[in-house]
Design a protein that fits this description.
- The chain is α/β, with parallel strands linked by helices.
- It is built from 12 helices and 14 strands.
- It starts with a helix and ends with a helix.
Length: about 325
C-alpha cells in the first residue's frame, strides 16, 4: 500500500509540473486570507450551484489561522470540489465543509509523501455520495481523466484543483470508499500575518438586455445557473452541452443569435472551433469564452488570441451579466 501511495505521489508531482508549465505566465494575486471568510462569502453561490436536494453543513473553526494564496483561485478550488461532490450524489445527500488548524508531524509526513512537517490550515469537503474505487483514485488528478459518460465532463476539475493547491504551496489528499462517500482535504501553510480585506465585488451596472445568448457548457449545474442568471436579466437563452449540439441548434434556430457564450474546452470539440463554424453561418454573432483556466494560461497555450473576450470561472452573477453586456455593446 505504501509503495502504491509513493507511486501516486510521484505521478501527481509530474502532473503538477505539467499544470504549472501550462499556466506559468499567470500573475497570482497573493494576499493573506481567512478561509472562513472566503467560505462564508461564496456560501450562496454553492447553494445555488448544488441545488436544493443537497444539504450543505459548515463546521468552521473560529480560531482558524491565516494563509497566503490567491482569493479567486481558492474560490475555484472550493467550487470544483463542491461540483465534484454534487455529481457523486445524483439522488441528493449531504456536503460537509469544515476548517481547522493542523500540525503535521514527521510521523504523518512519512505516510503522506511529499508533505513537509509544519503548521497548516486545513479545509475539507466530505460528501455522502457513491465514492470511488482505488483504480479511479489512482488517476483522479490527471488532466482529461473522467468517469463521466461522453458529453458530461472534461476531466479538468480535479486536475485544476491539484495545480492550484500546489501553486499555493499546499497539499490535497483524498479518502474514498465505494458506497461510503468521499473526502477531499486541502492543507495550506499557516502564516502569522494580519488578514487582508475582502476583495471588492464589482457592482452591477446596467446589465439587462433582450438579446439571444447561446450558452455552451458541459457542466449541467453551471449551465442551468448561467441560464437562470441571464434570463433573470431579460435575455433569451439557448443552451447546449457539446459543440456538436450547439452547432446543430444554431443551424436550426430560426431567430437571431446575438452572443455565443462557450467554454474553451468542450467534450468532442472546442469553443474556438465552434465559434469559427458559427461565425461562418451567422456573421454578426459576438463571442465570449469562459474557462476554469486563466486568460493568460489560455493565451499562452495558443488556444485563444490575446484580447479575446474571456470570462474566468467561477464567476459571480454581477461579473457574468456585466461581461455579457460589455461584449454585446462593444463597437
Amino acid at each position: 500500500m505504501r509503495s502504491e501511495a509513493r507511486r501516486a505521489a510521484e505521478r501527481a508531482a509530474g502532473l503538477t509540473r505539467q499544470l504549472l508549465a501550462f499556466s506559468r505566465k499567470q500573475v497570482l494575486q497573493m494576499r493573506t486570507l481567512d478561509l472562513n471568510e472566503l467560505l462564508t462569502d461564496i456560501d450562496k453561490l454553492l447553494r445555488r450551484l448544488l441545488g436544493e436536494d443537497i444539504d450543505i453543513v459548515t463546521k468552521l473553526d473560529p480560531k482558524l489561522g491565516a494563509v497566503r494564496a490567491d482569493w479567486g483561485q481558492l474560490e475555484q478550488v472550493v467550487v470544483n470540489l463542491a461540483v465534484n461532490a454534487r455529481d457523486a450524489m445524483p439522488g441528493g445527500g449531504r456536503l460537509t465543509i469544515e476548517t481547522r488548524n493542523a500540525e503535521l508531524d514527521e510521523a504523518y509526513t512519512r505516510e503522506h509523501v511529499p508533505v513537509r512537517p509544519g503548521r497548516y490550515v486545513m479545509f475539507a469537503l466530505s460528501d455522502t455520495g457513491t465514492g470511488m474505487s482505488p483504480e479511479t483514485m489512482a488517476h483522479m488528478f490527471e488532466p482529461f481523466f473522467t468517469t463521466k459518460e461522453a458529453g458530461k465532463g472534461t476531466g479538468l476539475g480535479l486536475a485544476t484543483v491539484y495545480g492550484i493547491v500546489k501553486q499555493s504551496g499546499g497539499y490535497v489528499w483524498c479518502y474514498s470508499e465505494l458506497g461510503h462517500g468521499t473526502t477531499f482535504t486541502v492543507y495550506l501553510p499557516r502564516v502569522d500575518e494580519p488578514v487582508d480585506p475582502l476583495p471588492v465585488r464589482v457592482a452591477a451596472r446596467s446589465t439587462r438586455g433582450s438579446e439571444t445568448v447561446l450558452v455552451v457548457e458541459d457542466e449541467p449545474g453551471l449551465r442551468a445557473l448561467t441560464r437562470r442568471l441571464l434570463e433573470k436579466h431579460g435575455y433569451t437563452v439557448l443552451e447546449a452541452a457539446t459543440a456538436d449540439a450547439a452547432a446543430a441548434l444554431a443551424r436550426d434556430y430560426p431567430g437571431p443569435i446575438h452572443l455565443l457564450l462557450a467554454d474553451v474546452v468542450l467534450p468532442g470539440g472546442s469553443g474556438r472551433a465552434l465559434a469559427d463554424a458559427l461565425l461562418s453561418q451567422r456573421a454578426g454573432v459576438r463571442v465570449l469564452f469562459m474557462s476554469g483556466y486563466t486568460e493568460d494560461a489560455i493565451v499562452h497555450r495558443g488556444v485563444l488570441a490575446s484580447n479575446t473576450p474571456f470570462l474566468h470561472k467561477p464567476f459571480s452573477a454581477d461579473t457574468l451579466t456585466a461581461k455579457v453586456r460589455e461584449v454585446l455593446d462593444a463597437t
